Amino acid sequence: MIPPLQYFIALFLIVAGIWAIMLKKNLIKILIGLSVADTGVNLLLITLAYRNAIGGAIPTAPIYTGYEKGMIMVSPLPQALVLTAIVIGVSVLALALAITLQIYRHYGTLNVEEIRRLRG
Amino acid sequence: MSVIEHTPILTIVMPLTFAFLIPILTAVKKESKIPEVLALVGSLCSLVFSVIVAYAIWSVGKPIVYTLGADVPTIVYRNQEFPVRILLEIDRLSALLGILVAFEVFIATIFSWGYIRDHKRKDKYYTLMLLSLVGMLGILYTGDLFNLYVFLEILAISSYALVAFEYEHPEALEAAMKYLVLGSISSTFILVGIAIIYGEFDSLTMAMVAKLIDEYGMTASLVIAYALFTMGALLKAGVAPMHMWLIDAHPSAPSPFSAVLSGVIVKVAIYIFLRITFSVFGLTNIDTTSVGIIIVGLAAISLTIAPIMATAQKDVKRLFAYSTVTELGYIIMGIGVFFLAPLSVHGILAIEGSVFHVINHAIYKGLLFLVSGSLIVAVGTRNLTKMSNIAKKMPYTTIALIIGLFSIIGLPPLNGFASKWLIIESSFAYSPVTGLFVILGSALTFAYMMKVVLSLYAPGGKEPSGEVGASMVVPVIMMAIICIVIGLLAAQILNKVIAPSIESLISRSEYINAVFNYKEAALNWSGVKLL
Question: Which domain holds residue B406?
């Protein structure tokens, strides 16, 4: 059976990322938090791919059918999902950094408490 | 297989193709009308195809399934053949909202012709606009959970970029940053929810997951997944008290895109919630009372806080953004009442009112945001107190604006009245308390919208130079006419369009069986009656 350690690490990364997003004042640190949370989700997805052939509702991986009982299988689907999720994460991060750059040009600071022209 | 059977995917692919043709062709020939024309053609293609799809579904009477790619692999599950690949599954609700989305983007594109006229980055603007259309249509049509996430992110990234489009103004950057961070959190929630469902059932197809949930029942991890989906979707929708990003982001975007954001993008998030609840998890598997209480509570907050904040606004676009939160309160209230009294007469009436309100709000809020764009072009300010003599100098725009304002207040015979009345009546039938909140929201809406009406006639301030160009008047007048037409034909639309959509949303077995008989459920043109 797969040790549940990876699940805890994934959960820790997601929680740590969201904690950073909510509590940090520096925009760059917020974006690092975003990236860490993304990594946590990707780790969760990859971990879910490893499973016993007997477990789950549909035990057959779509490509490999010659499995025996008790074998540990790696489903190829989550790896495809994670590749997509990584690409999406990179594009969000690139856009976020571009916006951060422009914010720094306009405000001269990255502190979110000083970037407050919109209110009410 | 003829081309017509591929209409569902063409609806999504056409705007995608045109979106990436725009930068290529603009690089070849700069300073031309190429971006406008291509964007117009792309969104028009989408509109036509989505109407065809909806027509086919209405005449067949059940959901249609489009499988992408080759005929293999399939697996046999409980003697039923099941396609292992990405599916599009379209029922009447998603077809209806598909038309709405394509129409709204089409109107916004026409309006942009005058609004964005000589902007140096206009090719990028139109590309992102079409990409957001791709994302929305994908979310509405898909039958696969991860595909839903991918389209959600296409929609999200293009809207973050468009909110930051006028990056000469620091406010736009700030709003975009808020939108991006909160949007990413909500996407992360949804992705974790999808991961949990995948871990539980090894499947991402919504119908397969639904069938397996019915067979194996809810587990603790599935409850967490449902909570994550709900939280993600409501955060994306911007329901109070999670509305702070919406108030900043919607006014900061270019006005035509504000119309799209407020009119349809928040509704797409509501649609995700409905689809996940009704089709994937199913009403019988979730605790409808507690979900209903939470949703009615959020609706009550939206209906009281947002209009009170709106009365204090001077910026016309910001005022309309607050009004969007109020209107989201109505929509959510209808859904919440349905959860509290599932499948009862007034429960069904409430959710019909909600979906009707989704359509009506898209029309009149689109109109209002477009008119705010006209005011920005003509007067050069968004501040209500600095405008004067609008009514005299811009008669057509003013007529449309007043129809839109009366519609949002809920004066009969305009469309806002029909759907608001349904929600008020059904929530009052459920409990006087929920009814009271809806009436309170309605009264406060009247208060702050009258402020806009008064400022049209008030003296002292900048006067507009004259009526804006035809490309900015025609879409607005069209929307106003649609407001009146929907208002007059409300009963027919409710019986012929809204009620069947709700029927197909609620009937979960129909949704599941369509995928397991995917060969019969394909869009078969011979079964469609031509009028």
Answer: 287-488
